[in-house]
Amino acid sequence: MRNRVTKLQHEKKTGSVFAVEEEWTRTDEGHTLNEWYLYPSTGVDPTTGLPLWYTDASRTQTTTDFTKTQRIWMGASAIPTLTGGFNLHADWKGVYMDVNAVWFAEHKIMNSYSGDFYSDNARLLQSGRGVDDMYGKTWQGMGDNKAQFPILSTDNSHTGGIASASDQYLRRGDFIRLRDLTLGYNFSKSLLTRLHFTRTIAVYAQVTNLFTYKFDKKPNYAPEIPENGLWEFRNPAMRTFSIGCSVNF
Questions:
Q1: Do 32 and 79 touch, CB atoms closer than 8 A?
Q2: Considering the entire predicted model, what is its pTM?
C-alpha cells in the first residue's frame, strides 16, 4: 500500500500546515503517513570518539555538536508498503500438508528504547545495565574507525538525549513468517470399511509461528509490530504445537 498525505488542515492567518509530529515520526503534506522524522546519525568520529551527526538533510556536512543537527525526513514509513501472503495445499495418497505464510516489506521499524539500552553513560555499564552487544565495540582511541558506539561518558552529555530519536537505530522491517504448517493423514475408505466405519477420520499435527525470516539481521526483536513501527517490550507471537484427530460422524 503506497500512501501520500495530500492535504491537512491549515492555519487561517499564516497558512501554515497543522502537521502531526511525534517523537519519532511526522505526518505532513507530501509525505507518507507515519514517515520517520529523525536526527541523522553517521557513526562515530574516529578522532574524538564523539557521536557524529549530519547537520541537515543534504547529508554533506557533519558535526559532533548535537545542538547543530536537526531532524530530517527519512524517506521511509513505519507502515509497510507491500503486504501479502500465500497458501499451499498438497495431498498424496491420504497424506496432506497445508502451509500458510505472510510477508511485509518496504517499511522501517525501531526499538524506541535503544537510546537507553545503548546509552553512552558509563555508569549504566558499570552497574550491569548495559547491553552485551556494546562491550568491545565502543571507541577505543584516536584513529579507531571501527567503533560502533561512542566514547563513554559519566553524564550522558555526548548526545543530549537525542540518540533515541536518531536514525542510528532505524532498521529495515521486511520479514516473512511461516504462520501455520499442518501435516495430516486421511484414513483410506478401504481401511475404514474393514473397520465398519462409513465416515471419515483424519489425524494431524500443526505448528503455528514456526519460522520468521528477517531481511535485516540487526533487530533482536520480533519484526511484527504496530503501525507506529515501534517495538516497546511487546511479546512476540507465540510458537505453538498441537495435534488432533478429526472424526466425521
A1: yes
A2: 0.82
Going 164 to 74 to 132 to 212, the CA torsion angle's sign is positive
Which residue shows C-alpha cell 547491553? 131
Per residue in 133-167, pLDDT tens? 777 888 888 889 888 888 887 766 677 677 788 99
Strands 200-214, 175-186: pairing is antiparallel
pLDDT tens-digit map of 176-200:
999 999 999 988 887 777 777 777 8
Q: What is the rounded CA–CA span in Å between residue 207 and residue 186?
A: 18
By C-alpha distance, which of 237, 238, 235, 220 is closest to 110?
220
Residue 131 burial (10 A CB sphere; 0-12, 13-18, 19+) = middle
How many helices and strands, by DSSP H and E, does the chain display? 3, 15
Residue 5 CB burial class (10 angstroms; 0-12, 13-18, ≥19): middle
Looking up cell 495445499 gives 89
Residue among 52, 1, 83, 60 at smallest CA distance from 163: 52
DSSP letter for each residue of 107-165: -EEEETTHHHHT--BHHHHHTT-S-GGGTT-B--STT----SB---BSS-TTTTT-GGG
Nearest to 224 by CA among 59, 102, 121: 102
The whole-angstrom separation of Cα 216 and Cα 229 is: 15
